[in-house]
Amino acid sequence: MAVERKARKTSGAAPVEKQKKTKKRFSLWKILVLALAVFGICFFVKAELDIYAETAEYNRQLAGLQQAEKEVALSIAEKEELRQGLLNGDANDETIIRIIRSRGYVYPDEVIYYDVEKGE
Questions:
Q1: Share in percent of the chain as helix, strand, coil (round to 5)
Q2: How far separated are the first and last CA of the chain, in Å rounded?
Q3: FRET partner for 114 with CA separation of 20 to 30 A, picked from 3, 6, 61, 91?
Q4: d(CA 97, CA 64)
Q5: What's the pLDDT score for residue 83?
Q6: For residue 91, what are the contacts with CB-CB under 8 A and spacing of at least 6?
Q7: CB-CB contact of 44 with 58 (8 Å)
Q8: What is the chain's mean pLDDT, rounded?
Q9: 15: pLDDT strictly greater than 60
Q10: Rounded to an integer, what distance in angstroms lies between the CA atom of residue 118 and that of residue 110?
């Protein structure tokens, strides 16, 4: 009978060792899958942030181009108004001087003083 008990103990110990090895392998797979999932999430979050930054830059450039387009349209309208006034003879000297001064031109030897307190 003593021999049978030793056999049982030996045979019972082997499956426990196999279970421990499979648990270790299974936990390694869990760690690998978890690491892959974390990497994937980080990758997609970074890609999303890059897309957001590029979209913001694109919107800033678009706003700048739209502002430039408005300025060009106003300049063209102003030139057309002046041209029509000169062709029809309707433009007087005050209109011509006002347009020229708005572009920053002055008479020779003329000095312009700005009131700093008013913010001009």
A1: 80, 0, 20
A2: 113
A3: 91
A4: 30
A5: 82
A6: 82, 85
A7: no
A8: 79
A9: no
A10: 21
Amino acid (one-letter) located at 104: G
What is the rounded distance in angstroms from the CA atom of residue 67 to the CA atom of residue 8? 89
Q: Which amino acid is at 120?
A: E
CA-wise closest residue to 99 among 116, 86, 117, 112: 86
94-105 pLDDT per residue, tens: 777 777 888 878
How far is it, in rounded angstroms, from Cα 42 to Cα 36?
A: 10
Q: Return the residue matching tokens 């739209």.
A: 66
> What is this structure's pTM?
0.44
pLDDT confidence of residue 56: 95
Question: With left for phi above 0 and alpha for psi between -120 and 50, is residue 89 left, alpha or beta?
Answer: left
